[in-house]
Amino acid sequence: MNAHPYLRAYLAGIFVPTLVLPLILAGFIVVRLVLAAPFPIERFLVFPLALVPTLFGLWNMLFLASHERLHQSIGLHGMVLPILGAPIGAMVANCLGLLEFGAHGVIYFQYLRVPYVVLPLLVLAAMACYYLVWKYVVGFVNRTLGIA
Asked: Which long-range contacts (CB under 8 A, 24 or more apart) does 65-73 make?
């Protein structure tokens, strides 16, 4: 089963966000429509729903292409993704007016304030989650599809 390994790597990469993002969307719909949250959640959803699955798929293709030379584990490869994705996401959110950089922290939707001291902890938590997802879920799908 060596036909089209990069296509299979892309499909294995988009597996996790394709399953998780509809659940997040359902949660946001409940928060916005049922609980009547006072901030515009819809604007926040467009970027992740459009970009995250593609980014996961391309990142898995990069893992497949570089694994023979670098021999890094898939968990460590996945753990790097939030380090690259968070600044890009923050830049896009800032350009769209969803994120502001204040004197003491970042402000989402002019509603949620996150102190700068907390941001490194959030990045470490994201790195830990991505490590586990990539090691166990994406790695399993890669092995199932015969590309690991």
From this structure: 65/6, 73/135
The 10s digit of each residue's pLDDT in 115-136 is 999 999 999 999 999 999 999 9
Task: Of 127, 133, 129, 93, give the one whose Cα is nearest residue 112.
Answer: 93
Are 108 and 94 in contact by the 8 Å Cβ rule? The answer is no
Distance between the two ends of the chain, CA-based, in angstroms? Answer: 12
Q: What pairing do the DSSP bridges indicate for beta strands 105-108 and 112-115?
A: antiparallel
Three-state DSSP class for residue 2? coil
**Overall number of domains in the chain:** 1
Enter the pTM of the model: 0.84
**Residue 128's domain spans which residues?**
5-144
- The rounded radius of gyration (Å) of the Cα atoms in the chain is 17
